[in-house]
Design brief:
- Helix content is about 20%, strand content about 0%.
- It is an all-alpha fold.
Length: about 130
């Protein structure tokens, strides 16, 4: 795996602290907050990798329940934004870093169709070993 740059990571400043220009930029003052560009309509078929797969309604532009934030941030830290963001926003794309992931690509329980949408949690005392 190629090493990402050790310094000068303005891409991470954009993704995590100021918003990405032309996507969800809110100004130069760094702040760890959720940003949502409401002029981008919701996706008809949301992609778990959000903007990495060209679904600009997904993370880091807001946060949907099905967005795979861990995989997205792993790839961002490793400078593996993929060809879509490299072409659209000029973000780095070190190959094969754009294939990184934690191996968890979906929930083990389906979302509910009504509020609160998330499935009930597993019982903490149940153990299946």
């Amino acid at each position: 795996m190629p090493a990402p740059p050790a310094s000068g990571r303005n891409d991470l400043v954009s993704v995590l602290l100021t918003g990405v220009p032309t996507l969800n930029f809110t100004g130069p003052r760094p702040s760890d907050e959720l940003r949502l560009n409401t002029s981008i309509p919701p996706a008809a078929n949301p992609d778990r990798l959000g903007v990495l797969d060209g679904d600009f309604a997904g993370f880091p532009n807001g946060r949907r329940l099905g967005d795979d934030v861990v995989d997205i941030e792993l790839r961002a830290i490793a400078c593996g934004y993929g060809p879509i963001l490299h072409a659209a926003l000029g973000l780095c794309d070190l190959q094969p870093n754009d294939q990184l992931g934690d191996g968890v690509d979906s929930n083990d329980r389906q979302f509910l169709s009504t509020f609160p949408y998330v499935a009930p949690p597993h019982q903490g005392y149940d153990s299946h070993t």
